[in-house]
Amino acid sequence: MDLAITNALVLTLDESRRGLGIIDDGAVGVTRGEIAFVGPTTELDGTSADRVIDATGAAVLPGLVESEPATVPRLRRSGSSTTAGCSTNG
Question: pTM of the entire structure?
């Protein structure tokens, strides 16, 4: 795995999870620029990644493509404390 984002509030559109796919202590794994894992951080135990981001206190929306440049400023105005982005496109 190239990148693991751990300990985050992960928001997905997976209706089989609580709400619209809320994972309270979630993780997202990325391999070769593609999402390879979405689930609880504990399920990544023992998995190695080239880079690990501890996203405690942050929300992660896997697969969200920011096509509107005003999205991040809107998140900031909404009170989100962390708006740092992550790109795997090199």
Answer: 0.68
